[in-house]
């Protein structure tokens, strides 16, 4: 049983015979039951998200097996420094998200809010870096499919020539990083909502489920990028 569930259940008791805390939904008998249901639901959702992204990874694998030299040449046009910076930013944000959960577990409202703000700031920094990456691709004409019209003056210095079908690579690049970016934006919205709730004093040692669930989602966002970075930028 979780720390939250154990402490809340011991204070509240079992069954409907006692008044429910305001954070305990009416359709649950105990805080432990609510916590376990929320955690299970989130893990099911994350499994679905992994299945969704796995389709994109399969497409990547198929196209790379068909055009290995094209993928190798195209990857030189991605900014490895920006990609690595974003990797560090997301890894650090996962740490602060976990620290926010720990702070909520011990009832430290101020620390929880501060860690959430740092996580939100890291997420925004990720999007700013990604904006400049996308901006360069548009300026260089490195776009998907029939929109692929590279401008030589904007290409990476000393990079190998790009085959005519390189637009396929950038189609996969924009699809995978774009969908991931949408998840980052959704994550920012969720974290802001959690931060506002924390400021209102809704979380305590007895109830921190929402902070825990939001952090789980954010860890998924980080995990997906950990795979995207080497596959697109390094290999």
TrEMBL record:
UniProt GO BP: aerobic electron transport chain
Gene3D superfamilies reported for this sequence: Cytochrome c oxidase, subunit III, four-helix bundle
GO cellular component: plasma membrane
Name under which the protein is recorded: Cytochrome c oxidase polypeptide III
Keyword Kinase among UniProt keywords: no
Family the entry assigns: Belongs to the cytochrome c oxidase subunit 3 family.
Domain Heme-copper oxidase subunit III family profile per the UniProt entry, residue ranges: 39-235
Subcellular location(s) of the protein: Cell membrane; Membrane
A GO molecular-function annotation: cytochrome-c oxidase activity
Membrane topology designation: Multi-pass membrane protein
CDD domains: NorE_like
Pfam families documented for this protein: COX3
PROSITE patterns hit by this protein: COX3
Membrane-spanning ranges: 40-63, 83-101, 113-132, 170-195, 207-228
Keywords from the UniProt entry: Membrane, Transmembrane, Transmembrane helix
């Amino acid at each position: 049983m979780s720390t939250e569930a154990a402490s809340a259940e011991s204070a509240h008791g079992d069954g409907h015979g006692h008044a429910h805390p305001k954070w305990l939904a009416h359709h649950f008998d105990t805080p432990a039951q609510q916590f376990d249901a929320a955690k299970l639901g989130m893990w099911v959702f994350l499994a679905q998200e992994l299945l969704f992204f796995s389709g994109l990874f399969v497409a990547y694998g198929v196209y790379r097996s068909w055009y290995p030299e094209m993928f190798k040449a195209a990857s030189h046009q991605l900014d490895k420094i920006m990609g690595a910076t974003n990797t560090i930013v997301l890894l650090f944000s996962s740490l602060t998200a976990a620290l926010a959960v720990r702070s909520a577990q011990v009832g430290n409202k101020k620390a929880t809010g501060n860690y959430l703000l740092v996580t939100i700031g890291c997420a925004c920094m990720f999007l700013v870096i990604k904006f400049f990456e996308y901006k360069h691709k548009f300026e260089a004409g490195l776009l998907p499919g029939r929109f692929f019209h590279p401008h030589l003056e904007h290409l990476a210095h000393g990079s190998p020539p790009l085959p005519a079908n390189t637009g396929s690579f950038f189609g996969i690049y924009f699809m995978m990083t774009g969908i991931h970016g949408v998840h980052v934006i959704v994550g920012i919205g969720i974290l802001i909502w959690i931060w506002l709730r924390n400021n209102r004093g809704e979380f305590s040692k007895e109830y921190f489920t929402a902070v825990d669930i939001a952090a789980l989602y954010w860890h998924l966002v980080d995990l997906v990028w950990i795979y995207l970075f080497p596959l697109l930028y390094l290999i």
